[in-house]
Specification:
It is a single chain. The chain is α/β, with parallel strands linked by helices and 345 residues long. Helices cover 42% and strands 19% of the residues. A 6-stranded mixed sheet has the order 5-4-1-2-3-6, with helices on both faces. It has a 5-stranded mixed sheet with strand order 9-8-7-10-11, with helices on both faces. A hairpin with a 2-residue loop joins strand 8 and strand 9. Helix 6 crosses helix 7 and helix 7 crosses helix 9. The structure holds 5'-O-[(R)-(carboxyoxy)(hydroxy)phosphoryl]adenosine (KG4) and zinc ion. The site of 5'-O-[(R)-(carboxyoxy)(hydroxy)phosphoryl]adenosine has 20 residues, from helix 6 and helix 7.
Length: 345
């Protein structure tokens, strides 16, 4: 079954074609990030206006790259939330219109669940021969029960998944999301936007043990997070140290280590408590190399497999939405599908 996914929850406009939930045939992403850089964060109105301009060409490119015509698509999927209302409306209303005209089933998807499904995808664009493709088709898929760690600019959540469609929210951030903390500290240090990759770059030349920043809630029994105190600790250091500019890379490295320590410890604790076979990580912060190496290393010591999507599929994309829709196939009448900016678990 070929599903055309559409994702427009934040500043990306993405369309993708995925076959049987796992085979990525195309994934087009147009980002308006350049337009937001000077503001240090996404400006919702600017993002939505840009999405109106690019949504149709992006869908057309996704179909072209997958070499499939709209008529041959079996179903459609669209992110309905959470996200920015103006941005969501562009994707949702476009999907509804296409589903109505072409008489395709339309599956509304939760963006956060979508991030976990990025781990089910195999990139078929790189595989051209039939033999390669059939070998890849049997490559291992994630095994239940599993823990999903969603770490993005707007969210930090841990979920327990017993099976497709059977999940339980374990905890989330009480204030800033992990990516938001990266973005805010990057701005404070005079680094660019988005902050995650900038902090990661600066941290490469820094000493992660020079500053001992707090690891909020790391030892608490729950699965909640809090990153605003950590951010405040960096603010206080910068205010009290007139030479902080010289220590920028050490601050970045020490801050990055603090966030990663918390994410690793809590994810592993959840996996152990719920006897999960695997941890699946999704969201923009999943692109972070320190998080990747630390979580994988500590997971393997405990016999827990840790999966990360490629960097392309860690950030917002429509392929993960198409995959989630395949494994949770609950189509709705186009006219009843609505954007839900506040959707959660
Ligand atoms: O999932 P995403 O693309 O959009 C949201 O749904 O929010 O995540 C964007 C977030 C930003 O806060 C960005 O700073 C962060 O992901 N990010 C990273 C890295 N790349 C992106 N954080 C840490 N390290 C990275 N390499
Ligand atoms: Zn996201």
């Amino acid at each position: 079954m070929k599903i055309l996914g559409i994702e427009t929850s934040c500043d990306e406009t993405s369309a993708a074609v995925v076959e049987d939930g796992t085979k990525l045939l195309s994934n087009m992403v147009s980002s308006s990030v350049e337009l937001h850089k000077k503001y240090g964060g996404v400006v919702p109105e600017v993002a939505a206006r840009e999405q109106v301009k690019v949504i149709i060409p992006v869908i057309q490119e996704a179909l072209d790259e997958a070499k499939v015509r709209m008529e041959k698509i079996d179903a459609m999927a669209a992110t309905v939330g959470p996200g920015l209302i103006g941005s969501l409306l562009v994707g949702v209303e476009t999907a509804k219109t296409l589903a109505f005209i072409y008489k395709k089933p339309l599956v509304p998807e939760n963006h956060l669940i979508g991030h976990v499904y990025a781990c089910w995808l195999t990139d078929y664009r790189l595989l051209t021969t039939a033999v390669d493709r059939s070998q890849k088709a049997v490559s291992t898929q994630p095994k239940f029960p599993l823990i999903g760690l969603i770490v993005s600019g707007g969210h930090t959540d841990l979920i327990f998944m017993k099976d497709h469609g059977k999940y339980q929210w374990l905890g989330g951030t009480r204030d800033d999301a992990a990516g938001e903390a990266f973005d805010k500290v990057a701005r404070l240090l005079g680094l660019g936007y988005p902050g995650g990759p900038e902090i990661e770059k600066a941290a490469k030349n820094g000493n992660p043990n020079l500053y001992i920043f707090p690891r909020p809630m790391i030892n608490e029994k729950n699965f909640d997070f809090s990153f605003s105190g950590l951010k405040t600790a960096v603010v206080n250091l910068v205010k009290s140290n007139s030479q902080w500019q010289k220590a920028k890379s050490d601050i970045a490295a020490s801050f990055q280590k603090a966030i990663v320590d918390v994410l690793v410890k809590k994810s592993l604790k959840a996996a152990q408590k719920y006897q999960a076979k695997e941890i699946l990580v999704g969201g923009g912060v999943a692109a972070n190399q320190l998080l990747r190496s630390q979580l994988s290393a500590h997971g393997s010591q405990l016999g827990i497999k840790v999966r990360f999507p490629s960097v392309e599929l860690s950030i917002d994309n429509a392929a993960m939405i198409a995959s989630a829709a395949y494994f949770n196939f609950k189509p709705q009448k186009p006219e009843s599908v609505q954007a839900q900016p506040g959707l959660y678990f």
